[in-house]
Design a protein that fits this description.
The protein has about 350 residues and is an alpha/beta fold. The chain has two domains: about 200 residues, Periplasmic binding protein-like II (D-Maltodextrin-Binding Protein, domain 2); about 100 residues, D-Maltodextrin-Binding Protein, domain 2, CATH 3.40.190. The chain has 14 helices and ten strands. A five-stranded mixed beta sheet has the order 7-6-8-5-9. The protein has a three-stranded antiparallel beta sheet with strand order 3-10-4, sandwiched between helices. Helix 2 crosses helix 11, helix 3 packs across helix 11 and helix 11 crosses helix 12. It is globular, with a radius of gyration of 22 Å. The N terminus is likely disordered. This is ABC transporter substrate-binding protein. It comes from Jiella pacifica. Keywords: Signal.
């Protein structure tokens, strides 16, 4: 009887281990940083304001809460994901690709979907500067992160195309890491060595309101067309172990993008509120950015492979993706991207 009882217990334990995972095995809370703010991260704020993740979780048959943290910046975002302090993170393609490359043999971070597509603008307060080529001496360009930010990679692309492979990093010594608001202040006041700022929206437009500040480069001109500005990523472990929570988040993202397209006024309200209730431009100016043909909210990646190929060619990435499927989890939401 004892032997029979033990065998029965083993059989029961084995059955439990082999049984399909249920919804209760998934996480009950998502941890999502809101990012650096501005137009590129608007879908996250729409998701938060309208509790879209919670809504889609119920449709998936699970209960989810969301901890929306105010973490921003590529380094902080990456650390949050790697440490388990974030379920999903949002960042520009260069930051994502760096993390994808470094985690190929462990956490295997991959892209979930694109979030926004929009250009960045290189503005200067020096009337003598007509192009990036005029930057010299002790002049400095404010960028969000030296070497690996979108502006840094864009300037490397430009330098390599114009001056040759050995001049790829020609403009790196002129860059300094600064948050967008700090760069705006430096450029507008004209104090110090900051003579240019590679700005996202609406900071670029705020600078251009000042007399003497003008644009000398547009990121889309360098990449050859519209390019993903922000995108979502997570680890393969999270993706595989939490299929319903993952689906709920993606569903919420897509609905947020649709809501932005269908109700611009409400979306702008959310954006301004996310900026503390006071925008750097007036409402009409903010609306003109939101409704611009250059501002798109889509899950389909654009020019991410171009970033990857370039970064591998110059040695910033050890691994080269062969297809978009190497970078993103398989999904119809990213189909047709590049």
């Amino acid at each position: 009887m004892k032997k029979s009882g033990m065998m029965a217990a083993v059989a029961m334990a084995t059955a439990i281990l082999l049984a399909p995972q249920t919804a209760s095995a998934e996480v009950s809370e998502l941890k999502v940083p809101l990012g650096a703010g501005g137009f590129g991260f608007l879908p996250l704020h729409v998701m938060k304001t309208n509790k879209l993740v919670e809504k889609h979780a119920k449709e998936e048959g699970i209960e989810l809460t969301v901890d929306w943290s105010n973490i921003g910046g590529p380094a902080a975002m990456n650390e949050a994901l790697l440490s388990g302090a974030a379920s999903f993170i949002s960042a520009g393609p260069p930051s994502f690709l760096t993390l994808w490359d470094k985690t190929r043999t462990n956490l295997q971070v991959k892209g979930v979907a694109a979030m926004s597509t929009m250009p960045m603008f290189l503005n200067t307060n020096d009337p003598e500067i007509k192009s990036l080529d005029d930057i010299k001496g002790d002049m400095k360009i404010g960028v969000t992160s030296v070497k690996v930010s979108i502006p840094s990679i864009i300037m490397q692309m430009y330098a390599r195309e114009k001056y040759g492979d050995d001049q790829t990093f020609r403009f790196d010594p002129f860059t300094v890491s600064m948050a967008h608001p700090d760069s705006v202040i430096a450029l507008v006041t004209g104090n110090g060595s900051i003579v240019a700022h590679y700005a996202s929206q609406p900071f670029a437009q705020r600078e251009l309101k000042e007399e003497g500040i003008h644009t000398i480069q547009n990121s889309d001109d360098v990449t050859g067309g519209p390019t993903t500005f922000t995108m979502i990523s997570t680890t393969t472990k999270f993706h595989d172990e939490n299929p319903k929570a993952y689906a709920a988040f993606v569903g919420a993202l897509k609905e947020a993008q649709e809501m932005i397209a269908n109700d611009r006024e409400a979306a702008l309200d959310v954006l301004i509120q996310s900026m503390g209730g006071k925008a750097v431009l007036d409402r009409d100016e903010m609306m003109s950015i939101l409704t611009s043909d250059d501002t798109k909210y889509t899950t389909v990646p654009s020019n991410v492979m171009k970033y990857a190929t370039f970064m591998h060619d110059i040695g910033s990435l050890k691994n080269a993706p062969e297809t978009l499927g190497d970078l993103f989890f398989e999904s119809d939401d990213v189909a047709g991207g590049n």
